[in-house]
Amino acid sequence: MSRKLGVLIHGAGWVSTQHIAAFINNPHAEVVAISSIPLESSRKRAAEAGLDVPCLDDYAKALALPGVDIVAIGTPQQFHAENTIAASRAGKHVLIEKPVAQSLSELYAMRDAVTAAKVKTVVSFVLRWNPLFQKVKKMSADRAFGEIYCVETDYQSYQGDWWAGYTTARTRAFGRSAFLVAGCHAVDALRWFAAAGEFEAADPVEVFAYAGGKRLGRSEQYNPITNAWHDGEPLEYPGLEIALVRFSNGVLGKVSANFESIQPYSFPVSIFGDRGTLKDNRVWTPERSSRKAWDVLPEIGPESADVTHHPFQGEIDHFIDCILSDRESHCNLDDAVKTHEIAFAAQKCYETRSPVGLPLVAG
What we know:
Layout: E1 5-10, H1 16-25, E2 29-35, H2 39-49, E3 55-56, H3 59-63, E4 70-73, H4 80-89, E5 93-96, H5 104-117, E6 121-123, H6 131-141, E7 148-156, H7 166-169, H8 178-194, E8 204-212, E9 220-223, E10 228-231, E11 240-247, E12 252-258, E13 269-273, E14 276-279, E15 282-284, E16 295-296, H9 312-325, H10 333-352, E17 356-357
Parallel strand pairs: 1-2, 1-4, 2-3, 4-5, 5-6, 7-12
Antiparallel strand pairs: 7-13, 8-11, 8-17, 9-10, 11-12, 13-14, 14-15, 15-16
Helix pairs in contact: 1-9, 4-5, 5-10, 8-10
């Protein structure tokens, strides 16, 4: 392709600032339009980035603009399914923010539409491009930990109205669950580290989960930025979810999403292998730890919930390369279905109080 790939930014919220910057910085892509409701949000993002491009509040018209090859979907999560289906039917490659869907039926309808259209996708489980995560995955692929038998990941961030998306994401109707809203990052990391290959995620086969915590229905709220309490809108679903996951390769996993932790953002990761152990950025192996001390990895880890800290450039550079080389991303929609099925299986488990087998079947 001689010309650059044209990108439509759809949704002008917080994350769109990072999508725009990353596409601008890629030599093979250019932002050709921004769409959102309200229209003023699109115009604001264009002005911030110094872009003289069409700004629209009509998604169908935006998809029909000449030169659009890619759609970056950063709308609220309840719109991701219909936005993705429309983009794929229009023949556009799609970047989809997480979570990608609100239900199994939406999830599978998206997958069917993408498969039929034969377009490329990437789902923003952006921590797969985090420097520490990349280092650990390469170490794992090189068998630094030997054969992995257990992985633990946790998403610990007090979700409140310090975050602009909280008003809708806190609700059962539009947020659905802690695992779905943001904890899916930890679920995806669990799959990522449970697989041996450097660019491979493990396939889950069974889930058992509990939901709990103390915030459900309470108006008192903590702000981790100001370190203060105030009254606000309550969560409509449990703020704590913990799941055990069994994978097809025999690895066992434990994952949690904790929207109630009174602390700064944290994303703990543990990997246990028969030749070594990882605890966050600390490694213990007989070969590396001869002084009886943990070896500390210097790479930057997932240290903040702020989108400016997330490695969107790596994700988007990878996606552009997948399109140009006509190959599928390791983080495409088909793979992301397996991550989301764990979150949906947890919800089913709360009803049945029994282990839930995967893959699921939409009902």
